[in-house]
Fold:
Amino acid sequence: MAAEPVQKVLFEHDGVFIHPRSDEDAIEQDLLSGSLRIVDKDGDIAVEFRPLEDAVDPSNMLCAGKDSSSVMAWAQCSGSQYQQLSETQHSYETEWDMVNAVSFRRKPCASRDGALNHGHERSRWAFTFCLSDLRSVTVKEEGWTFLLFELKESCTALPALHFHQGGSREFLDGLRRFALLSEATDDDTCLLVSCHNRALCQSFENLLDDNSFGLVHQKFRKDPYVTTLGGFSKVTNYIFDAFRGTEEQHQRPPEEVADLLGEVIQGLEINQQEEPGFEVITRIDLGARPQVTRAEPLSVEDWTQHQDPEGRMTRVPQLKKVIFKGGLSHAVRRDAWKFLLGYFPWNSSQDERKTLLRLKTDEYFRMKLQWKSISDEQERRNSRLRDYRSLIEKDVNRTDRTNRFYEGIDNPGLVLLNDILMTYCMYDFDLGYVQGMSDLLSPILYVMENEVDAFWCFVSFMDQMHQNFEEQMQGMKTQLIQLGALLRLLDLSFWNYLESQDSGYLYFCFRWLLIRFKRELSFQDVLRLWEVMWTGLPCHNFHLLVCCAILDSEKQKIMEENYGFNEILKHINELSMKLDVEDILQKAEGIGLQMRSCKDLPDSVSSILGFEADVRGSDPMDSGSAPAPRASPRRPDTCSDLHGHLRETTSHAVAFMS
Amino acid sequence: MTTKTSLLKVILLGDGGVGKSSIMNRYVTNKFDAHLFHTIGVEFLNKDLEVDGHQVTLQIWDTAGQERFRSLRTPFYRGSDCCLLTFSVDDNQSFLNLGNWKKEFIYYADVKEPEKFPFVILGNKLDVTERQVSAEEAQQWCKENGDYPYYETSAKDATNVAVAFQEAVRRVLAMDERTDHLIPTDTVKLHRKPRSAGTCCS
Structure:
């Protein structure tokens, strides 16, 4: 799972001092008191020093580390580029603190041109470095202890830290928890630092030394901000504008700014790792897009032919392939969806499924009783349940009301929709009800026409979609970033166009992704699209290729008409109900094949699509025609476990978020 | 400046289900659909109108009301000229939340002078018989929170919808005139830049 950037403070000691000195004019300055911390930033151990009175909490800052590689890259500029950094800092005054916190190479006495105000003067002394970048610590005594840090790049000079109020021993002990400190042979005051995960650090350094780094690097010199953030998306600019606003107006509490920044950093984590690759590879020739054809939906006869006498499904990979190619005829859906969603194991017998159903029915009604039996009094004291109930009521009244299954007043379909969503709240109270969930349930209930089956199928679908709805919406962010990577590869000029219109973060695809095109297609087309996607074929994240297919059809218009940010959003919103599912599926499959056959496919893309999980060069879609039993089962069909609800699709859905 | 059409961005905010999309649709298309889908993401519609001799294109933004979608909704607040805070007169909670919506808007829209920003308050679903919020309560709130104009609307039967939007436009234009007097023209142009059709929150 892509975790939020968590920072744990492992050690903290106030009353650590820097003795600022001006070499030229020897103006006496006060000792600078601050706080020294050892922090764990998502597994990276870093040391931070912040002078007192620094309004901005360093825990909110980007930190040089594996999760913000570009920041680190920038901070590792050599001395000659250093001058440029300070210029940037002047023109981006408000971001200055942030820049400073990551530029651990700053020489504290280097830029002294008085343009900085007092606050900046102080925060100028703040520094952060990763433990893995620390070469040695020298321990000196002068009536008190002070420490000198030497980083691995020799050009770096950090100010000595004076422990006027003790604590140096504890600090060093803190470091020892994460690194080996050994006395240098020629100087017993000097402790050499070797990191436990040296191999990892080393490989990362090599990565940055690579030629590809140069390109990023240059861009950074021009404008570190735009590069870092632009790489993710322009939505970050909003956030940084907001951040700037704070500085001017002093009206936003810093923790809220931190929240905003946190969101940015979350996004960056994923993206930054890809950035160097994309800087180097400007355009990849994908080759011609293969023409693919769609097939007829699977009939009832076809379906029964795949069942053995005990009711077990046989030749499942081939069956899935047929479903991928043509979908299901409506009469098969009620049975087949249960398997596709993982509610029924493919290899379960009829009897086993009866047992399962009994258990699942009991379990469902037990949970239903839980909310049914809550009195008004109880509910008055349960604001979350009250809110869920109120919103479910409102949304049920606004979901697919033109569909015969949900139309009119007092339609039993509406009651079922309501009850299943309420029961889902009891099933997963942490998530509860989030808008969009009624859209996901409605087609399932329509097909199942049965409360219990619909509930458990919905549970399975929600397992795949869960991250979309969580508090931080990480699923949405991940998908938007992944889609960006695919689009960039598919058509760089279109991608650049979107970026130029501040639309590179693809916000306009939000609704598509949140509820899997539910509002974009006719109800019947949604059924088709979903069953095709649930086969898990022909690759991971096929729905992202569906996005690509739609955008590929619209890009010409968008660019010719020179649509801006608003027009793009409007245009995409207005595609709703004008799309043809078979066209889209055909195109999406073609794009998938095109990418699969591309020899220079960036690793990031092949990991999004799960190509490396396949046998090299084999296409799961090719296997069906050959009788060979090795028919590339990309995801092995999970063995039957009748008591546990099967989640074979889940691991697939989150595979790229870890 | 009066000869040119200005683009004004207004945004509808309020709890889920108070009728934001219905108000927008009633105003722009003069249609009402009792079973309109709840909004996912953000949408906007344009409407041309003339107010006191000024040609105006209103760009009306509609958002998803649930708290969960805050981070994906708030970037669109920036550049708004007016905010229509909406509640439903048959839902007391939606009325109680007005203050939160106002706060959220000011916070994310980067409003320079929050106390002068033109908010208009809409109490929707006037057609519903069982009220939970009285007109007096609502007026009291508006008075205490910045002397905002208050309209009781019904997207269903079109009551007061157009009037409320016109008032919103008037408030924005009044703000403009005030600024025009105070600030040299080139600065005003800078400020008005988002109005040159097509861009808004970029």
Remarks:
- Residues 345 and 641 of chain A are 8 Å apart (CA to CA).
- The mean pLDDT of chain A is 75.
- The radius of gyration of chain A is 29 Å.
- Strands of chain A lie at 7-18, 32-41, 44-51, 127-130, 134-141, 145-151, 161-163, 179-183, 190-195.
